[in-house]
Amino acid sequence: MKILAIDTTSGACSVALYTDGQVSEQFFRAERDHTRRLLPMVEAVLAEGQSSLGQVDALAVSQGPGSFTGLRIAISCVQGLAFSANRPVVPVSSLAALALGARRSHPEWGEAPVLAALDARMQEVYWGLYPSGDITNALLADAVSAPEQVVSALAAAGYHHADSVTAERSFYGAGPGWEYPELAALNPLEVSLESAIHAQDIAVLAAQLWQQGIQVSPEDLEPAYLRNEVTWKKRERIRQR
């Protein structure tokens, strides 16, 4: 199985090729350079894997949540490549990929879940809670909330602080969304602020989803903004002032 994965969800740009369990990746921190970098990175990753676009079984992409512009860039690129190669697309949650990447970077972490969080601006975070096992199935679905609402949601779901008598309900934290001070009230076991979304983790998750029969045609690929259109238009107007 070969899957080509692309991500520009946040302040990075990455491309990966998954080949029967082995993954190669190019990853760059690039806030504004995604469009120029993407296709050369795709060519480089395919060349490294001695593959062509026509030899991949599917393409994969982070469908969000994340940067509005970043999501559009990656999804448009994947749609174009998938159309040209006549291949399906496997959409992957950016928060699931963030959670998987955090575990990859921290093999010492135990079996507790990972609360992945990205800064959604406007004093909100994108977040989701993911298990240590099948990360394709979230314990708490991806959402966008004010930080204090995240705390309330975790309490309502029965997840306690690390010093609770029910320590098995503790969790780790991953992602830049944890910079909001209100989230400190959750008292996670450990936080990895430097964790980022990587195409290699998108590729690994896409391989699992592919085996479950989850795929879409390029024309049916849709971003998961989580915010409605009215909110995005308001945000764009604020940026233009």
UniProtKB/TrEMBL annotation:
Per UniProt, subcellular location reads as: Cytoplasm
Coiled coil ranges (UniProt) are none
> Out of the domains of life, which is the source?
Bacteria
Q: What Pfam families does the record point to? A: TsaD
tRNA processing as UniProt keyword:
yes
Q: Which UniProt keywords apply?
A: Acyltransferase, Cytoplasm, Transferase, tRNA processing
MF terms (GO), sorted A to Z: acyltransferase activity
Q: Does the keyword Transferase apply?
A: yes
Location, primary (coarse class): cytoplasm
Residue ranges of domain Gcp-like in the record? 30-159
Listed GO CC annotations:
cytosol
Please, one GO biological process term? Answer: tRNA threonylcarbamoyladenosine modification
Give the UniProt family note.
Belongs to the KAE1 / TsaD family. TsaB subfamily.
Q: What is this protein called?
A: tRNA threonylcarbamoyladenosine biosynthesis protein TsaB
- What is the species listed in this Swiss-Prot or TrEMBL entry? Microbulbifer pacificus
